[in-house]
Amino acid sequence: MINNAQLQELEDIARQCRRDIVRMTNKAGSGHPGGSLSAIDALVVLYFRHMNIRPEEPLWPERDMFFLSKGHCTPAYYAAMSARGYFPREELMTFRAMHTRLQGHPSNTHLPGVDSSSGSLGQGLSLANGAAMAARYDGRPSRYYVMLGDGEIQEGQVWEAAMTAAAYGLDQVCAIVDANGIQLDGTVDNVKSLGDMPAKWHAFGWHVIDIDGHNMYQVDTALEKAKRTKGKPTVIISHTIKGKGVSFMENTAKFHGLAPNPEELETALEELR
Known about the structure:
The chain is of the alpha/beta class. It has one domain (4-271): 3-Layer(aba) Sandwich (Rossmann fold). Helices cover 42% and strands 12% of the residues. The strands form two sheets. Strands 1-2-3-7-6 form a five-stranded parallel sheet, sandwiched between helices. A two-stranded antiparallel ribbon has the order 4-5. Helix 8 links the parallel strand 6 (207-212) and strand 7. Helix 1 runs antiparallel to helix 9 (262-271). The longest helix is centred in the first third of the chain and has 25 residues, at 4-28. It holds the Pfam family Transketolase_N. One of its GO terms (molecular function) is magnesium ion binding. Its cofactor is thiamine diphosphate. Belongs to the transketolase family.
């Protein structure tokens, strides 16, 4: 069980990652800060507590894998990877620059440690399923994590993949839904309501865990439960706040794909001090 000192360390890492998210999007003049700020707590717990990885050996065959299905939220992905030691923190400031390894959407041909390129929404769970089935046939114990957005799971391919994971009993697959309730054009409920999301996943044969995605104790406990679940995949519905930590970005679609300007950056960094 995670202790208070470990929780504090994770919170400190997440706070620094939030500062990096707003700095790198400001420097680039583009990017997706809102959904990155909502997702970062789960990513920090995952990368620092649960994934069996070797940052110094990113292609280690026995590694666990992560698939960022909501591929536009690379600021969170890169901030977590950098904090974990995959590349120097200074490189974050090359985000979206010409010839950078830190593309606007993750590219496994550019950055070691990115297990799959993504960008087109709805595909990450299928990729995780395929990797998990290959590992099963090869006799590898690796686990496969995928992060989706709640707006993203309006895509039909997600539910085909959900059926597949349940049909094959892929208990080494764990999906994390970053349920911040807001997508590009407004609230998820207004664009295309998902209704009872936990009930939907349960009906598709998944083990469902509902949590506060900014409570790192709950995130850590949910990921532990997912590891212990056998015979079916697990989905963690992580209820979050879009733009978490920056007052003028919270609970608004405005900063879904808008970088902070210099004045906004200064305010954000002060709030994240």
